[in-house]
Amino acid sequence: MKATFDAKKAVAEAELRNEKLARLLGVEEVKNRQLQESLKRMEMKASDLEEENQKLRGAVASVPYVRLPSNVNRDDPDLEPTPENEDENENEKAVYCEVKPMIVDRGVDIHNSSQLPGLNDPEAEKQQQELLIKCISEDLGFSIGRPIAAYLIYRCLIHWKSFEEDRTTVFDRIIQKISAAIEARDNNETLAYWLSNSCTLLLLLQKTLKINGAAALARQRRRASPLKTPQENQAPNHPDRSPVPDGRLVGGLGEVCQVEAKYPALAFKQQLTALLEKVYGIIRHNLKKELSPLLGLCIQAPRTFVVSPRGSGAQGTDLAQQASMAHWQSIIKILTNSLNVLKSNYVPPFLICKLFTQLFSFINVQLFNSLLLRRECCSFSNGEYVKAGLDELEHWCFWLTEEYAGSSWDELKHIRQAVALLILEEKHSKSLKEITDEYCPALSMQQLYRISTMYCDDKYGTLGIPPEVVSSMRTKMVQQGSNSPSTQDDINSFLLDDDFSIPFSIDDIAKLMVHIDIADMDLPPLIQENKGSPHLMP
């Protein structure tokens, strides 16, 4: 018997080992298939790249020869003669040239490379990088409502062809300088300055950097025939297409075509995007931190608060009401000051609107959650006090205009509807349908139940929501699978959550900010006095 038992045990252990080995074998087979698929994709990409290179070489070979003027420097590295034409007639001096894109600055002769210092001189370029970093370390301000630092950085990167380099340190130095500038997290003036600059610079990069890799080449093959330029593939006189698709910036930089950026440039764009989001988030956090203590005081009416009777001109009552509204006025002062800081730094209205919309959402969450968690706040007189404060915010939104306010007022819908229920007259005669459809459509059944059960009329002593309506609310909650509103587990079902998301994308910015012109901008004195930087001068 013992031998049989041992044999069965050994068989069971062997089967267990076999199952483990089978699972491991299955995992390895999946990994093997994934590796084979990855290898196939890499081979396809390599094949696509080789095919594209062959087509590009054929296109270059088909370019007709260009007769160079006698005054052109033939040692210019942008004009590369090919071996095939070295035996051509020496008298004609004709060579085939590979045409490379060149940025044409206003007032610069592109045939005279001496007027483009730093283009091929590493030492001169290094000196100019030092000059750029020194310039952006200061607050360069704005010219005609546009951030000078952003355009200065962009113009230098274009001139140095940094976007096309496989290795460069200039991007890291720029990011480090901006990161150091925003370390003072409580200085909203500095943060707004870099919010404006980083947003503008990101827009310029979005318009300039072209998608790289096999995906872009595949799209190009689908749109164009192999040996034709983009201009040749367009229908003649097409009203919706420009001669160089998506490749022209308005004014100042001449004809600036898109650049097929290398990895450092694309990484720089990602880092800049992260910086923009970080600066936006810090400003939002700072404003929330300022508002939080005031919101805690605004949810409960002070004893001095008195609602003025309609049509009364009692001066004493008005003064007492103004004194009791001091906390709400402080909130409006914070919002107004932040608006002035953002506008003085020319932050795009689009971003200002997003910021205020999220701030009003925060105000809604704080006030509404406090109302639901504090029984003493669910009273008639307290509803009147909060309603008076919300009226102040509504007037401020109207003054702000829709361009900057956006949907800010709508973000307060939960606290507005809760207050409307608190000060609703003749509650005892209202049905559940009337309450949910007409007065509180945004509130859930749990929220309505909590307000109804905590409400008291401390001013007139009138009746609240009828018991049968409250009972109907509870029945509906049970039907929806909710727990008892008195349990701790149900708190999350009626409280609101704050929004910590970044409410915009690069595409949003690119769509709303499209006009770029730097021809008439004022540059900092350090640049104007430096004779080695003519490419930066308008």
TrEMBL record:
GO terms for biological process: actin filament organization. Residues 77-90 have a biased composition (Acidic residues). Residues 69-91, 222-245 are annotated as: Disordered. Residues 172-480 form the Dilute domain. Residues 25-59 form a coiled coil. InterPro entries: Dilute_dom, MyosinXI_CBD, Vascular_dev_regulator. Keywords: Coiled coil. The keyword Electron transport does not apply. This is Dilute domain-containing protein. It comes from Oryza nivara.
